[in-house]
Design a protein that fits this description.
The complex is a heterodimer. Chain A is of the alpha/beta class. Helix content of chain A is 31%, strand content 19%. Chain A has a single domain, classed as TIM Barrel. Chain A has a 7-stranded parallel β-sheet with strand order 3-15-14-9-8-7-6, covered by helices on one side. In chain A, strands 4-5-13-10 form a 4-stranded antiparallel β-sheet, with no helix packed on it. A two-stranded antiparallel sheet of chain A has the order 1-2. In chain B, the strands form 3 sheets. In chain B, strands 4-3-7-1-2-6-5 form a 7-stranded antiparallel β-sheet. The chains are: A alpha/beta, B alpha/beta.
Chain lengths: 302, 244
C-alpha cells in the first residue's frame, strides 16, 4: 500500500481525497477534466426515491471565501441513477463509489438505500440527514439525536454495506448527534454539511437566493469544520470523514490530524474542476515538508 | 472544455461602461458562437462567466459591461497579465437551421455573442440582418463590426439618441428565415412574442461552476430540466417555459 492509502470502514482507498456530494455530479462529467480514477472515491449527487427538480433560481450566492447554495437536492431519482448514471459511470470509474442518499421519511431513506446497497459499484452509503435547503426532510432528521438514530436504524436494517451518516453543523452539540448515530449502528460519520446562511441584495432589498437561506461552503468554513471533526473524533470510535472548506493538501493533513480517516472536498471542485487531482498530486510534497511518512500514522495525531 | 492560463493582450473601452478584452494562448481551442469563458479573479470565490464575442486561432475576444466587483477587477487588468480561464463552455448556437436569411436580435451586452455567430453565418453565404438594441447612443457598440461583415444592421435606442427610437421588437423586418437572440430577459420575452419563425435564445443565469457540476443554474424547459451552463445557454424557442 502506498503512503497515501487509508482505510474507510474496511475498504482501502488509494488516497483519502473524496469529492463531496453535490459538487461532482455523478462523476461522469469530471472525466472530461482529469482521470477520476486518481481519486480515493467520490460521493455522488444526493439521490432521493423520486426525481426532484430542486429549488427555483437563483440557487447560488457568492460570499467572502465561499458561497451559499440552495439547490434543493435536484436529482433524477434512484431508479434513473441505477438505470442510467451508474452504467455511464462504469465506463470511466473503476473503483467503488460512495452513494449519497437523502429522504423525507424513514421509509424513503430505507427504500433508496436498499436499492443502492444492491449495486456492485457502490462501496459505501452516505446518508444525508443534513440538507439545509429542503423542507420537511434532510436537516430535520439531523438536528435531533432520536431522529438521527431512527434514520440510522432504518437504513442499517435493510443494507449490508458500510453506512456513513452525514451530519449537520447547524446544531448546538454535534457530538450528541454523532453518538446517537454510532449507538444506532452507523459504521461511520461524515461532517460537516453546509452552514445555514443568508445574503441580501441591497438593490432589491430581497434575499439573493430564491430559497431565501442557503448552505455556506468554501474555505470560510474550514476552521469550523475542523473543530467539529476534532470534537466528534474524540466522542466516537467509528471512522469519521472530515469535510468543510478543504481546498489544499495542507487542509487534508489538518483534517487527518484532527482525526479524520478520509477527507471530502466540496466547493473547491466548483471553482477548479481539477482541484482534487491537484490536491492528490500535492500531498506527497506537503507530507515531506512536515515529516509525514504515510497518512495512516496521522490519525489522532492531536 | 479546457482549463488554461491565457494572457491578456487587449483591454480597452468601447462605449460607456463597456469594454473589449482579448485573451491569447497557444492551447486555446476553437470557441463556437454562443459559448462562454469562466474567468478566475483575485479574491473572488466564484469565476465570472463571459460570452465569447470573437475567436481566431490562439485568440478570444469578449465584450463586457462593468457592473460589479468582478468586472471592475477585469477593467483594471493590463496587457501581459495572466488569467486562469475555463474555455469552451456551454452548447452554443446551432447554425444548421438558419436558412437563407437569418435574423439576429441583440440587446446591450447580449450583442457580443451574436458577432461570432454573424461571422460564421456570413461565411456560409447567408443574408444576415442584425437588429441591435441599446439604452442610449453612448452605449452603442459593435454595429460597425456587424456592417463590416456584410450584415444589414438596424440600431435602436430607448431614448432615440441613435438609430430608431424604441425597442428591438419595434424594428424587426417582415421576412426572415430563422432568428437568434441574446439580451436581458424582458427583451427575450418580447422577442418570443414578436417573432414568427423558430429560433434560438441565449439565457443568463447566476452560475456556480459554469461546467455542469453544481446544478446552480438549472431551469425548467418543455423538454425537461436543463443546466443553463451545460445544456444551455442556448435554448430553442419551442422548448422554452417562462417561469411565471
Amino acid at each position: 500500500m502506498g503512503r497515501l492509502s487509508v482505510t474507510l470502514c474496511g475498504l482501502e482507498l488509494d488516497n483519502p481525497v473524496i469529492p463531496a456530494s453535490g459538487t461532482f455530479g455523478f462523476g461522469y462529467e469530471f472525466a472530461d477534466w482529469f482521470d477520476i480514477n486518481l481519486l480515493g472515491t467520490f460521493s455522488f449527487k444526493g439521490t432521493t426515491r423520486a426525481p426532484r427538480f430542486g429549488n427555483p433560481t437563483p440557487r447560488i450566492a457568492e460570499c467572502p471565501a465561499g458561497m451559499l447554495n440552495a439547490v434543493g437536492l435536484q436529482n433524477p431519482g434512484v431508479d434513473r441513477v441505477i438505470a442510467e448514471e451508474l452504467p455511464r459511470l462504469k465506463t470511466v470509474f473503476h473503483k467503488p463509489v460512495m452513494a449519497n442518499v437523502s429522504g423525507f421519511s424513514l421509509e424513503e431513506y430505507a427504500e433508496t438505500c436498499a436499492l443502492l446497497d444492491a449495486q456492485d459499484q457502490v462501496g459505501w452509503l452516505e446518508v444525508n440527514i443534513s440538507c439545509p435547503n429542503v423542507h420537511g426532510g434532510g436537516m430535520s432528521f439531523g438536528t435531533d439525536p432520536a431522529a438521527a438514530a431512527a434514520v440510522t436504524r432504518a437504513v442499517k436494517r435493510v443494507t449490508r454495506k458500510p453506512v456513513i451518516m452525514k451530519l449537520s453543523p447547524n446544531v448546538t452539540d454535534i457530538t450528541a448527534i454523532a453518538k446517537a448515530c454510532e449507538d444506532a449502528g452507523a459504521d461511520g460519520l461524515s461532517l460537516i454539511n453546509t452552514l445555514q446562511g443568508l445574503r441580501i441584495d441591497l438593490k432589491t432589498r430581497r434575499p439573493v437566493l430564491a430559497n431565501q437561506t442557503g448552505g455556506l461552503s468554501g474555505p470560510a468554513i474550514f476552521p469550523v469544520a475542523l473543530r467539529m471533526v476534532w470534537q466528534v473524533c474524540r466522542a466516537v470510535s467509528v471512522p469519521v470523514v472530515g469535510m468543510g472548506g478543504v481546498s489544499s493538501a495542507e487542509d487534508v493533513l489538518e483534517m487527518m490530524m484532527a482525526g479524520a480517516a478520509a477527507v471530502e472536498v466540496g466547493a473547491a471542485n466548483l471553482t477548479d474542476p481539477c482541484a482534487c487531482r491537484n490536491i492528490i498530486e500535492s500531498l506527497p510534497a506537503a507530507m515531506d515538508r512536515y515529516g509525514i511518512r504515510n497518512l495512516k500514522e496521522l490519525k489522532g495525531a492531536i | 472544455m479546457k482549463q488554461m492560463m491565457l494572457t491578456l493582450t487587449e483591454n480597452r473601452p468601447l462605449a460607456e461602461g463597456i469594454r473589449r478584452m482579448t485573451l491569447s494562448g497557444d492551447r486555446l481551442e476553437e470557441q463556437r458562437p454562443g459559448q462562454f469563458l469562466n474567468i478566475r479573479l483575485n479574491g473572488l470565490f466564484l469565476r465570472r462567466p463571459i460570452s465569447v464575442c470573437d475567436w481566431n486561432p490562439g485568440r478570444v475576444t469578449v465584450i463586457y459591461k462593468v457592473v460589479g466587483r468582478g468586472t471592475e477587477q477585469l477593467a483594471a487588468l493590463r496587457p501581459g497579465e495572466p488569467l486562469d480561464v475555463l474555455t469552451g463552455l456551454g452548447n452554443g448556437y446551432d447554425l444548421a437551421p438558419a436558412g437563407a436569411s437569418p435574423l439576429l436580435i441583440g440587446g446591450g451586452v447580449g450583442v457580443p455573442p451574436l458577432y461570432l455567430l454573424a461571422r460564421r453565418l456570413r461565411e456560409q453565404g447567408r443574408e444576415v440582418t442584425a437588429v441591435l438594441g441599446f439604452r442610449t447612443g453612448r452605449e452603442v457598440f459593435a454595429a460597425e463590426d456587424f456592417r463590416a461583415l456584410g450584415c444589414r444592421v438596424t440600431v435602436t435606442t430607448e431614448d432615440g439618441s441613435e438609430g430608431l427610437r424604441g425597442f428591438v421588437t419595434g424594428a424587426l423586418p417582415e421576412n426572415y428565415s430563422y432568428f437568434y437572440t441574446c439580451g436581458p430577459e424582458p427583451m427575450l420575452r418580447a422577442v418570443y412574442r414578436a417573432t414568427k419563425t423558430p429560433g434560438q435564445f441565449s439565457f443568463e443565469e447566476r452560475m456556480g461552476c459554469g461546467f455542469g457540476a453544481c446544478m446552480g443554474c438549472t431551469c425548467r424547459t418543455l423538454t425537461g430540466a436543463k443546466r443553463i451552463c451545460r445544456e444551455g445557454p442556448v435554448l430553442r424557442k419551442e422548448e422554452i417555459l417562462w417561469d411565471d
